Each structure stands twice: as C-alpha cells, then as structure tokens.
Amino acid sequence: MPLRLGAFVHRRIIAPGALAAASVLLAIPASAASGTPGAPGIGDPYYPAYGNGGYDVSHYDLRLKYQPATDELEGTATILARTTQDLSRFDLDFLLDVSEVRVNGAVASFTTAGEHELVVTPKSPLAKGTAVTVVVRYRGVPSSKKAYGFTSWHRTPDGGVGANEPEAAWWWFPSNDHPLDKATYDVSVLVPDGTQAISNGTLQSTSSRLGWTRFNWRSNKPQATYLATLAVGKFDITTGTSDSGIPVVNAYSKDLGDNYDAARSSVERTGEIADWLSGWFGPYPYNAMGGYVPNTTTGYALETQTRPFYSPRQFANGSNTSVVVHELAHQWYGDLVSVAGWKDIWINEGFARYAQWLWSEHEGEGTAQELADYVYASHPADDPFWTVKPGDPGPENQFDIAVYDRGALALQALRNEIGDDAFFAILKGWPQRYAYGNASVADFQRYAEQVSGKPLAALFDTWLFQPVKPGAPAAREASVAARTLGAPGAPVQPRSWKKIAATNGVHAH
Questions:
Q1: Residue 84 three-state SS
Q2: Whole-angstrom Cα distance, residue 132 to residue 51?
Q3: Which pTM does this prediction carry?
C-alpha cells in the first residue's frame, strides 16, 4: 500500500467511548423504540471510531459536481445497504455539510457527533435484514475540512485529490469507512470543460453540455472505502491493453515539470508489471488497471483499487519501477484480500515489499535471499527497528519501515522453512482463498500450515510478534545469514537496495 517515511503519518487513536457517549446524548424517538442504535465504530481496536455498526453496504452511487477554481464539491450519494440488526439510527463517516438525508425514500433527521460522524435517524426503525437505500445530499470545500488535525484531501494547482490510508472517504463521500465493509461503486463527476475526473475502474461514458463535462466511472468488484479515489485536474491520459487483455488507463498532471518523463517511464510499465506479478499471485483480479500522478505535494503512494495514486516525489530521482511493483502487488495483497483489522497490515505491506524483492531478482539486481540477509545484518540488536512487531505493530507504527522490511524478511524465513514449492503455492493460493473478502494474520498462518503441512507458530512468533531481533540460532534455522555489517563474510548491499529504499518515502500518509 502506501510507502513513505518523510512526512507525519496521520494516525489517531480515538477513545472508544467518546463517540458512543456523544451518540447517547441524541434522543431516540418513540418510533425507534423497537430498534437500537448502530455502533459509531465497526470495532477496530486501532481506530475505534472508524466504520460503523448496524448495516453492511453493497454499493455506492456518487453523483458529484466539482469546481476546481474554488475546491467546492457538491454531491448526492445513494448508498445501498442491508441492516445487520434492528436499527433505530445509524452513523456514516463524513465531514462535508449535509442538506438532506432520505432513508427508503422518506426524509430522515440527522445531526453530527464526534470528529467525523453523521448520525441518521430514519422516520421509522429498520428491521434486521432489511434492504435500505440511503440518499445524502451535500456540499462543501473538502480542503477546508479537518478531522483529528489533518486532511486527506489534497489541493492541487488545477483541482483536488482524495487519497489516503486508512481514511480518505470522509472528505468526498459518506460511507462505512472500514475495509470490512467493501462495496461496488459508480462515480459520476461533472467538471468544467478542459478538466478531467479520474476514479477507479472503467470509464463508462463521458458527455459535455454548457461548458461542463461529465465522467462516469464504475468499479464493479468489492472495494474498500480507502481504496476509492477521486482526482480532478488537467491530465495527459494514455490508454492501452496489457498482454493479458486488461484495459490500461494512466493519467499524468500536465504540470509535473521535471518529474513528468520519469513518472511516465515508470507508470507506463503498469501492464507489463501486473502481468509479471500474475505469475506469482494468480490472475489479475479486476477488469481495469493503470495509475495516476497528480501534482500533489504529498510524498506517498497508495494502492487505490485498479488505479494506484503516485506522488510526483516518487519520480524526483528518475524512473521508479519498484514503487509501481509495490502498489500493483497490493491489487492482490490489500485490495483483493483486505485486512480484517488494521493490525493485520503486514498482509498488505510485507507482501508488497516482498514483491519488490522478487522484482529485484527478476531484474538481476539482488535475490530475495540477499536482500533478507542484508536487512538482518543492517539492524543491530539494539536498533528500535526490532521493537516493532509487524504482526501487530500498533496504530502508531502501522506504516513503520519494520512492517515492510522486517515483514518481507519474515516471508523469506517462511520460504526457507517450507521450501519454494509450498511457499509459491501459498502466494498464489491465498488471494484466491479470500478473494474480494477480508482476512487476518492468524488466517494466513493457518493457511500456510495447511498448504505446507508444517507447524509454523514458532516461526511466525519469532519473526512477526517478538519485539526483539531474532537471535543467531533462529536466523540460521531460517537460513538467514546471522552476521552484522562490517563483520567478515557480512552481506554486501544488493544493487537494488537504493531503488527499493527510495520507495520508503511512500510509507507515511
């Protein structure tokens, strides 16, 4: 997913009771007595206020109008969902100003709570298992909105971009903002002529009238809310088809300056790299691919589904295929199979980093084993690097470099323990086992044990969950060179190392 250490990572721990207390203050109408309020959080211990309880979304239809000159966004969101309890009221995660909410056609009352909660009380309570249509009319200036002290909406010289992890939706559409509630999307955006709107999936149609152009995008496979993206600006757009037959749409801001050619030299290889990754991870899981590079000042990249977001900074030192490999690997590890909870981030980041190691081997610039040996040797036992547990790093370390590098090292240790046949069968089989769903680190361990026929609890504990450097015996047992840099016979830096390390700027969000 993301990569970037250069900027502050926007992660906040919200007290579980804070929003709940705010919601309790809202009077429950007598008509809702037969139901109970949906929880103001989905239950993720890292982010207790993120997502919501009481319903499951199947589809978002977003009809938007955006004015780049003022950053004003006007929208009507139609949300198709099904209740999971008898529901008297429910929350949506959202920040813009709402003028009307309807539930199943009837006007609903609404208010706000906490930092980012829109609280909706339908005219009548909703029975468990009921199909629900929610319509929210809204408008606002996304760049003017902050929650927990930050924004995930990026103003550009010619428009704006919604892209961040673990939260970006609040700034442009109301949602149940957690990977556990994936949905399909139709995103229709009206912008002034000469400006383009980029989103996920396939461009269904465009039409122009009276100085405005409408772009209609469709993402037809389940997609987590943080993987939905919107970019409005003036782009050069390229189209093509991968060897595997998938349509490719790439977009580059016209004002990228010196980074323009390096960006194109990298992102234009999307089809080639995705086809190569399918040899390791199985068939590409969507009907569209590509990438976009807006003129943002951010430093990170993000695996927005079918169309990753790249910062111009990723290409400041020239072409960077390694970051493209990383974000495309997430289309399987992170997008197709999403985290069950944010503590499971290793299943996203460790695997995308390992894909970069495999690409290094493919390019003849260092094998995965050489990179694993170098990572182990580069960090002495007292390095704080080893105090981060990739298997459950905590919200403050969710995108720490250890989740990436130590996470990939753990995969090499697993590969050496169970052998290449079982390891690569797992890499290809896992995305199919949990396709379009969610899974945890514990699920992955069980799957690896099932495929390999070996008990792996000790190995996973050593490499993912102990806040210390695995000792020399553990390293030797996992066939990792137990030497430190500078010692006789110590690993040398693989040629790909600097290229891979250059993508560390993608980690912080």
A1: coil
A2: 17
A3: 0.93
